[in-house]
Structures are given as structure tokens and as C-alpha cells.
Amino acid sequence: MSNNNGWRNISGDFYDWTITKEPEKPYIHDYSKTLCLKLFCSIPDNKGNSIVACNFQQALDIIEKIDNLTREIDKIVYLVGWQFQGHDDKYPSWSQVNEDLKRTEDKTAEDSLKWLMEEALKYHTTVSLHINMTDAYKDSPLWDTYVQKDLISKEENGSLLKIGTWNHKDSYQVCYKNEWESGYATKRIDDLINMLPIRKAGTIHIDAFFARESKGHDITISEEQSYRRKIIRYWRSRGIDVTSEFIYRENEIDDLIGLVPMVWHINQNLEDYLKRPANLLTGGRINRDLTEYDEKLAILFGESMHGEGLLINNDDLTKIKSGWQVKFLEVFCLDTLPWYFLNNCNRIYVEGVKPNRIAYYDKNICVYEQDRIITINDKPIKVNGDVFIEVLWKDTKEIIAYSKEGYKNRKWDMPDSFENVESVTICRITDNGLVNIKNNVQLIDNTIILSLEKNEGIIIEPYDAGKS
Which residue, 37, 128, 146, is CA-closest to 90? Predict the structure, then answer.
């Protein structure tokens, strides 16, 4: 157990974000301006070995390509299946890095993971981990301890609370209250922090962080929610943001707003979007597995991308999907790019009814639901599958233009930042970097005429004769 018992004083109280509209403590990262992705590395083969999709060297190669495709946007990549034999293996323990992911030149997989976390920073990418604090498996090194210490939730009859079957193994619910009070929750966290540079990353993704009652302990869902908040606050006290899979809403209460900055599957109603700024809570994407959701809110307020599903090769998990770059660029340009742009604006109000709603932002920006159009001063910057959006994360002037179906001789209005620019350079976006297409393209009345091929993305920047 930790020698410092200060964690015992951490509150489990509900945080009322409506008072300040701000997080309880400032987040380490600004998730409203960060592309968060998962990268699937491995999964157990149920024979004691791993099915490896990408090792740590291959992960860096992918991260470099993604950095080129996304024009150096700030990114966080959470590694899935980094531990033991892969995804969901041997929880609640996090004590071993998967040796099958090791680089040949390193002594241990742990060394390789540390190397990856450091090297990825060169590509504007923070690498952290996808973990689970809920599940417990019988083959875990911690199983006997957790049973003996009574850290597994129970049914009313005293049997252990089974919550699912993953990788052909039964999973049981960790009791947040008992784990916290015993000191094992903070021990788990501290051991991981001491093993890997998670504090430098400043973020961790906790999957499936559900609160469930433990009838055998007479512990309610509300109590478990309270202890979940303690756990999240402890991570933050160590300088680490907790992102998670859902808002959860057990007991119909959003109890993590202002504590969790980003959720993988974000489902909010219209009122939530207008009341909660993106830098308080963002995603992620709308959870389309739910039977009731307003998918079109993703048009009005934007949604980012997951990335993981674009790379997984379901036909052969030992390989990354061939040609993933094409779809990745499409989703980045059509979803993440507008999402980032809208997150830099203040949401004002929405008028109309489905499917003809209009969202109004400051800076004279409007989003039209039916036609999937975004305008600035009544001039379009996104029309369905075509975008012409200024890159706001760079210090230099740059525009990304992309077309899903292609077009000929389309006129676009340049943003105000290009007002004094007379000519531009056009380059194609590729996973290996920019490819010059044309220099010294003259602007006429601060407009440009473009022709794009299907699935083509380009950048437009002021022409510099010294570079040509």
C-alpha cells in the first residue's frame, strides 16, 4: 500500500459543473482541440499467446503516417492490447507489457513501450494506455488477492458478480468501494505510474468504467459512483486526466461532467450541447449502437473520429488493413476538421426542427442540418462531402480542401487571414508528407478556383518564392 495516506481524504462528492461551466480542475490536455485515437495492438489467441496486429515499432510507423495525414494536429493515441497477451487480458493486473510487441533491439517490451511513448512526441502525438478498472479474471495474477481481500462485487446470495465473457473468459466486477478503502485501487494506479511514464503523458483511457451495485456487500450504485469519482480524482491528483468510454448515466445521472474531459462514445441531447462547452466535455463519436439518439447532432455540433476501426483488419488480425489511409483522410477531413473548427467557436442557439435545424455560433458561423453545410458570413466552408477549412492549430496560414467525390472548377472564398495574400502554393496530402502540385497560384478578389479528384485532400498556403 502507499505510504502516503492523503488519498483517503479525496472526495467522492458530486461535482456541479453548472456553477462555473468549467472542469473541477483544469484538464491536462485540451481534448476539444486534440484528435484522440485508439490503436489496436494485440489480442489473446486463447492458447497462451498473442495475435499481434502491430508491435511498438509498427505503431510508431502508423503514428508518423497519421501525423502526415492530419497535418500535425495534436493527437493522443491510446494503445489497446498493450498488456500480457493482449486486449482485456488478465485484469485487474496491469503489471506486464506484452512481450510480443517488443522491438528486437530492446531488452524488454517495457523498454520498447517507453521508447514508443517518447518517439511519438516527435509526431505531435501523446501515447498512453487503454486500461480497465472494472473487470477481474480468474487467470489474473491479482485474482487470488482480490478474492481473499473481498474486492470483487457480489450477488445477493454471496456469489461473485459476473458481468460478461471476453476472450472466452468470465469477467467479474471489481468493487470500487472495497478496492478503494483497502488501498488496492491507489496501489494499482501507483504501480502503473511507477512502471511507465503515464504522468508525462498526462492522460489514461479507462474502458467500460461502469458502476454496479454489490448486493452481497449492501453497496448501492450511488456508492459505487461516489468511489468511481474518488478514483478519477486520484488519477488527476497524480497529474493524469481520465478519459472513458461513456458518460454512463447510471441512475439517470451524468455524474462525471467536469471530471472526465472526453468520452469515446458521446451521447448528449441538444440542450446538453448548448449548455456544455466542448472544452468541458467532448468526444469521440455519437454512439450509434443506441436505439434512441439524435445522430444529426453530429452535423450541428461536429464529431471527431475513432480511427481504430479504420485500421483493424477483421479478415486477418495479424495485419493492419491495407489502404487504410484513404478512408482515414476522408473521415479526418469531413468529421474531425469541422469538429475542431466548431470547437473554436461558441455555441449560441439552434432554431428549427428536424431535419431543418440551423445551429448558430459566434463569428457569424452557421451549420445547416439538412444540407450538411457550414458557412462563415454566408460563405460555405463545408458542403456535404467537400470542405475548405482553415487549419487553426498551426501558427502559419494553411487551408485544407478535400472532396469525397471530386469536382471541377469550384470557387471558394479565402478566409480573412488570407486577405493580403496574392498567390498560394497547393500541395497534396499523403501519408508520406506533402507533394507539391502547383506554385504561385494567383488569387482573384480573395477567391480561388479548385478542381479536386475523388478522395483528394490538399493544403493551400501562401506562396513563398524562396521555397520554390
Answer: 146
